[in-house]
Structure formats: C-alpha cells, structure tokens
Amino acid sequence: MSDVKRRKLSHDGPRPTKKSKKSSREDAAIIQPRTIATEPDLAEEEGETQDAVVDKTFADLGVTESLCDACTNLGFKAPTAIQAESIPIALSGKDIIGLAETGSGKTAAFALPILQALLDKPQPMFGLVMAPTRELAYQICQQFEALGSLISVRCAVIVGGMDMVPQAIALAKKPHIVVATPGRLLDHLENTKGFSLRQLKYLVMDEADRLLDLDFGPILDKILQVLPRDRRTMLFSATMSTKLDNLTRAALQNPVRVSISSSSYQTVKNLKQQYLFIPHKFKDIYLIYLLHEFAGQTCILFTRTINETQRLAFLLRALGRSAIPLHGQLNQSARLGALNKFRAGHRDILVATDVAARGLDIPSVDLVLNFDLPPDSKTYVHRVGRTARAGKSGVAISLVTQYDIELYMRIERALGKKLEEHPSEKDEVMVFAERVGDAQRVAITEMKNTHEKQKGSGGGKGKGIAGGRAKGKRDGMDREEG
Question: Does the keyword Hydrolase apply (predicted)?
Fold first, then answer.
C-alpha cells in the first residue's frame, strides 16, 4: 500500500470545492428520484443471491485499498447487494435513497463512501449520521471506527440519557464523524458553544421511517435548516412510506433510489418464519416449551411492554435460564451492558421491547420469539430481522392467541404469504405447567419488590442522568421505550 493511502486523517480545515450550478426551475421542481432496483427473480435466474454479490469485490466498486483492507480484516468477503448497488453511486457524488431489508449491510453501504471521501479531503465535522435509537447510534459508531481503523478516523456519539458535558468535550475535539439521535443533536446545536455543522459534507439518516414514526419530524426540520446545502445526503431504511416524501424533498437533491427489496415488507430468504396458535392463559407455558425445544441457542424474546419484559426476565431466571432484560426505562449504561452481555454470550436470552427491534447487529442470534405480536407490520419485519443476518439462517416464531388474530392476519397480508404453523403437541407442552406455575409466583414476588424499591427511592420513569436538560418531549422520544 502506498504512503498516500496509509496517511492518517488530520485536523486540516475544509478545502474549497466547486459548487454545482442549479437552475431555479430545478430547485423548485418536486424531485422524482431515479430508481435502480435489483429484481430478486432476475437475480435468481442469473445464479446470484441478494445476500452477497459473489462476482464483485469492494475494489471493483471503486473502494480504495486501505478501506478494502479494513473490510478484509472485518471478514467482509464480498459486498452485499445493497452495497454493490449504492457504493458506486455514492462515490460518484449523488444523493441516495437506499431500501433494503434489515441485516443486508446498510451501514457499510454508507460508511465506506464517506470514509473514502474523508480520506481524500480530511476535515473535522465531515459526516453526520442520525439514528432513531441510542443503541443503533453506538453500533454505527463502532462500524465507522472499525472500517476507518487504518486511517485513524475519530467518531463521537451524541445521544440522550447521557451527560451533555462529556459530549460537548468530545465535540470540541473536532471528530470526523458525529453519530446522533436527533433530539440530543438539536440540544447541542442550540446550547453548546462553538459547535457547528456549517462545514458538513455528508448527511445520513438511517432507519429514516422510524425517525418520523417517533415524531422527530419537527426536530429534523430545525436541524436541516442549519446544515449546508452543498452536501451529499443518503437516506436508508428497510421500509419506505408516504411520510418520507416530504423529508426526501427537503433533504435530498436529485436522489437515486436503490432498492433490493421486492416489497416494502421484504425479509431475507434464509429466515424461517412460523407461528403457534395458542390459548392466552397458556402463553408462558408455550414459551418455556419453545425455549426448551431450542435449548442451547441464542434468542431474542420480544414483548410489548416494559412491565412484561421485566416479568419474563424474572420468570426465566426462576427456571434457571440466563435471561437479561432490555427496555427504555433502563439507564444508558445498563442498556449497553445488557447488549454487551448478550453479544458476548454471557446470556442466552435477551428479553426486550421494540427498543431492540431496529438496526442492532448481533450476529449470533439463532431464534427470535414474538411473545407479544408487534403493533404493526414494519416492526415485525425489523424484529425478525435480528436473526438470519449476514447470510446465516435463523428462525422466527410468533405466539398468536385468540386476541391477536386480526393483527396477525394484517402481518401476513403485508408479507404477502402465509406462514407455516410450528408443530407442537399439547401433552408435551403441558409437562412444563407445574414448574412454570412455581416460577410465575416467584416472578410476581420479584416484581412487587422491584416496584416497592422504586417507590421507596423516588425512582421511576425519567430518573437518572438527565444531562442538564429539562425533561420534555425530546427526552421521551430519545428514550424509545417500544
């Protein structure tokens, strides 16, 4: 590798770039993005897969040698379909709307072009990535640091629930990449002296539909107003909705639409999706039966509420299972600690609300169980996308009670297919009834003790590090409790 390609990024200021001249007619027109779609049927006929484009390398896409080396070190053997389609377009300097199912490698699809442009023209505050949840923001930062390790990229994470002072210090050190949740980013733009994004060159909105679902729309408008117009913008999501049209027009200039999904609710082919129709009163027993059937495999267990997440964690522990809860009421260090224990294999079961449904890359998940069905089909797609990632196979099973039939039918309609029923024998399931009954009593006692402790300490929702910010609407959205 040449010395030029190995050079380290510095604090060099921005270099002058030629601004493109656009006619007023073009500015005023409603932008109709051009579309590049990878048709799944065509890909199958040609012997290709959507998971990896085996006849291409990252170098073939135009990625520089030092970043190719970083990809090799991380075990990226070949670019995925979304990477193969979007990276050359991004390297050519065009805005992108990227649509791909979760687990398809979207992060590297926007990180590699940004890092390559940064290598050519080093400057602080070069790129901004906005994500809907804190955990996803930390994960994106880790990916940037890993891919940019050979060029010493500096990255700062700016999220709610943490003290603002250390974040302000990190921003004062002029990182190359800022990864943030919108609410906390706006706080720093309004209150942190000396912090500005006027020299920004790249903006990424990851899980953009979720950003709008969480009512971040007005905050995004304020952020976009202080960003320079002369920038490149990339918008990525697994699903696309009409809500995103206005954001697309406001944020992107003549974007190219890259889609590798055949529908808005596409899931990967190596994911086995099943359901189990059961009486509501036996829900806990069927859960333990399934976990016994998949013993030794890692599992994410999704629930609808924080209370149910905590109760199931106590229930599973009473039965000797290594389970750990993850929900929005935990402080940030506890949330990251739970994720890290699960990633490291110290816990087999992660019991979580939808705070864990989006974007989190945990490569070793074998099974996703929907203890409670999600409120909408998009969330279902993201939940089951926690398994069968990076070309691996996985299983997703949903428990459907007599109260969930309408919701389940909506999910099947959105997926465009009927799911198969998971085989079970009632006699085999009810063997666990007595042990589950004992564990339920233990869980109730533990929940009572937890609630009493919270009352006694004056704890509860919103307690913890507020980072010097008044509690308000943005705190609730940053909390993302599912």
Answer: yes
User: Residue 145 carries which side chain, given as an amino acid letter?
Assistant: E
Question: Does residue 62 contact residue 94 with C-beta atoms inside 8 Å?
Answer: no
Write the pLDDT tens digit of every residue in 43-66. 332 233 344 555 789 999 999 999
Residues 6+ apart with CB under 8 A from 472: none
Q: Please say whether the beta carbons of 357 and 382 come within 8 A.
A: yes
Can you tell me the distance from the alpha carbon of 68 to that of 226, in angstroms, rounded to the nearest whole number?
34
Q: What beta strand segments (E) does 292-442 contain?
A: 299-302, 323-326, 349-352, 367-370, 394-400, 420-421
The whole-number pLDDT of residue 14 equals 41
Residue (of 6, 104, 123, 115) closest to 63 by Cα position = 115
**What is the value of pTM for the model shown?**
0.64
Q: Is pLDDT above 60 for 319?
A: yes
Query: CA 473 to CA 219: how far, in whole Å?
Result: 11
Q: Which domains does the chain have, with CATH numbers?
A: 30-259 (3.40.50.300), 271-456 (3.40.50.300)
Of the chain, the end-to-end C-alpha distance in Å amounts to 47
Residue the block writes with tokens 């935990």 = 330
- Give me the count of residues in the chain: 482
Q: Is 12 exposed, middle or buried (0-12, 13-18, 19+ CB in 10 A)?
A: exposed
Q: Provide the pLDDT for residue 171.
A: 97
